[in-house]
Amino acid sequence: MKDFAIRSPGAKVEGLVYFGRMLDKIRMHAKGELPGEYQLNLGRGFDAACVDFLRIDYDSLVWRVKEGGTDQDILYWSYSRGRRPSESEIHIWNEFLRKRGWNDDLSETLTRRKKEAGMAGRSEIRTMFEFIDADEGRVIVRGP
């Protein structure tokens, strides 16, 4: 269990999963509160996938987050700088990200991360979102 509050990757901002978590990490990093293990992946992995989906630059997003504002303000800024996905595209994004690690190219990474975290026997953890929630002390196992 981690000793800081960061939202679940499945939490939505205006219907979009992961975006809020990315903002939390940026905000915590700006305050010097983000643990080193999280800093290694800033702008990479799911962060990179999210900014690619929105067609914005990660460094520009970091700058905008540091300017302040609500999650919704920053999301609408992102839409104005990149693109605003349709409801169907958001649904596809959400379902794709929610299932990452389940029978795909991240399955090996998920298995390794579970083993490193002492959760190798946790068969109910089948996705990266589920792993992150379990690793951070949230007992949210939804399943793909």
Description:
The mean pLDDT is 92. This protein has helices at residues 19-30, 36-39, 46-54, 58-67, 71-81, 87-98, 107-116, 128-135; strands at 12-13, 16-17. It is 53% helix and 3% strand. By secondary structure, it is mainly alpha-helical. The protein contains eight helices and two strands, in the order ββαααααααα.
How would the blueprint of this fold be written?
Blueprint: E1 12-13, E2 16-17, H1 19-30, H2 36-39, H3 46-54, H4 58-67, H5 71-81, H6 87-98, H7 107-116, H8 128-135
Antiparallel strand pairs: 1-2
Mean pLDDT metric: 92
Our Rg estimate from Cα atoms comes to: 15 Å
Order of strands across the biggest sheet?
A: 1-2
Helix content, binned percent: 40-55%
Shape: globular
User: Count of helices?
Assistant: 8
Strand content: under 5%
Main sheet: strands, sense, barrel: 2 strands, antiparallel
Spatial separation of the terminal alpha carbons: 23 Å
The tally of structural domains comes to 2
Low-confidence stretches: none
DSSP strand count: 2
Instruction: Give the class from helix and strand content and strand pairing.
Output: mainly alpha
Task: Describe the structure using short key phrases.
3% strand; mainly alpha; 2 strands; 144 residues; globular; 8 helices; two-stranded antiparallel sheet; 2 domains
Outline of the structure:
The chain has 144 residues and is an all-alpha fold.
